[in-house]
Specification:
mainly alpha; cell membrane; MetI-like; 316 residues; single chain; Peptide/nickel transport system permease protein; MetI-like fold; dipeptide transmembrane transporter activity; membrane
């Protein structure tokens, strides 16, 4: 067990290093001069050269990459060209919106999808299964930003129940903050709930055909008890995999929804930094997204060993 944990941690570190190098190289290849964007087209060549030196853009690519990587290890993500503040503070500030939004969306997705998927598997080929299948396919096909626009029209414009966008800040109170994130969370959760419903249904159906489930029924265990005590726990591996993927997707993929609802989150920061050609912010935000995906997948991989003891066979 310890040896496989060490191997996976080493693999995690190597993957993060490779990803960081790719991010830095790709960002460097983007067209445009960051110094010219900051100063404008009317800046003199001498001023541009001075700013490029201040930004470190006159250094070779390997030197700039190692300096950036060393800063990341120290927690220094650099200074934003546009905002004039440390990037670490920007990311931390925007995470106070994006992280609760993603958590709300994941909880909604799991709360909707797992019960529906399990019941659809239980009533396989019945009317309930058909209805759940149709609804899940529709929710998968509908883009999250479109759900967001419809929810604004219905719940904000027509009914006036919810705010149409913006975020008052957590200083305004927990209820006000959650209310501002409710519609965006629903917009993010519905398409993901459709995917997770199909995964949960397929996983439970696959397990229900195993011998130990049939044996439990033959011993007199009720259908519901056999389902929740034996089938569902053993079907958790693909479900947990999908939940982990959804969480990282919801954080990294909230760009459109945050722009629809005008939320000052990490996705909106990524969009703004791309539009303003703020290279430092762009590469740090993309690195954060990538590291989050890698780390969550690593944790999900370890969670497999907890959920399914069969995976621990032969692990030392």
């Amino acid at each position: 067990m310890i040896s496989i944990l060490i191997r996976r941690i080493l693999s995690l570190i190597v993957t993060l290093l490779v990803v960081s190098l790719l991010i830095f190289v790709v960002m460097d290849l983007l067209p445009g001069d960051p110094a010219a964007i900051v100063l404008g087209t009317s800046a003199s060549p001498e001023t541009l050269a001075a700013l490029r030196t201040q930004m470190g853009l006159d250094q070779p690519l390997p030197v700039r990459y190692l300096a950036w990587l060393w800063g990341v290890f120290q927690g220094d993500l650099g200074q934003s060209y546009t905002y004039g503040v440390p990037v670490a503070g920007l990311i931390a500030e925007r995470l106070t919106v994006t992280l609760p939004l993603a958590l709300m969306a994941v909880l909604m997705s799991v709360g909707i999808a797992v019960p529906l998927g399990v019941q659809a598997a239980k009533k396989h080929n019945g009317m309930f299964d058909a209805v759940v299948g149709a609804v899940s396919y529709v929710s998968i096909a509908v883009p999250a930003f479109w759900v967001g626009l419809l929810s604004i029209i219905l719940f904000s414009t027509l009914l006036g129940w919810m705010p149409a966008g913006g975020f008052p800040g957590w200083d305004a109170g927990l209820l006000a903050g959650l209310q501002a994130l409710l519609l965006p969370a629903i917009a993010l959760a519905l398409p993901q709930a459709g995917v997770l419903t199909r995964v949960a249904r397929a996983a439970v159906l696959d397990v229900m055909n195993e011998d130990y489930v049939r044996t439990a029924r033959a011993k007199g265990l009720g259908e519901g008890a056999a389902l929740w005590r034996h089938a569902v726990p053993n079907a958790l591996v693909p479900v947990v995999t999908m939940i982990g993927m959804q969480f990282t997707f919801l954080i990294a993929g909230a760009v459109l929804v945050e722009n629809v609802f005008n939320l000052p989150g990490l996705g909106r920061l990524a969009y703004q930094s791309l539009a303003q050609r703020d290279i430092v912010v762009m590469q740090d935000v993309v690195l954060f997204f990538s590291a989050l995906v890698i780390v969550v997948n690593f944790l999900v991989d370890l969670l497999y060993l907890v959920i399914d003891p069969r995976l621990r066979v032969g692990v030392r």
